Amino acid sequence: MKSNLTKNLCLLAVIAGLSACVTINIYFPAAAAEKAADKIIDDVWQLKDDAQTSTNKPVDAPAAK
């Protein structure tokens, strides 16, 4: 009975050891990532420029009554 338990524990240790060695690597294409980052930066700057130009426009004076 004790040797059966020892075998099971050893088998469990081997399986746990092998599963711990598994790694998953995901590689993103550098050019595509850089292009996406540039697009996002351009969009952000465009929004910022639009906000600044809308605040810099003179407001028409209200009509006198």
Q: In words, what does this structure look like?
A:
With 65 residues, the chain is mostly helical. The chain has helices spanning 2-20, 30-56. The chain is rod-shaped, with a radius of gyration of 32 Å. The mean pLDDT is 80.
Radius of gyration from the alpha-carbon trace, in angstroms? 32 Å
Helix content: over 70%
Average predicted local confidence, pLDDT: 80
Outline:
rod-shaped
How many beta-strand elements? Answer: 0
Our count of helices gives 2
Strand percentage, roughly? under 5%
Q: N- to C-terminal separation?
A: 104 Å
Low-confidence stretches: none
Structural class: mainly alpha
In N-to-C order, the SSE pattern is: HH
Largest sheet: number of strands, sense, barrel closure: none
Task: Tell me briefly what this model is.
Helix content is 71%, strand content 0%. It has 65 residues and is an all-alpha fold.
Which labels suit this protein?
mainly alpha
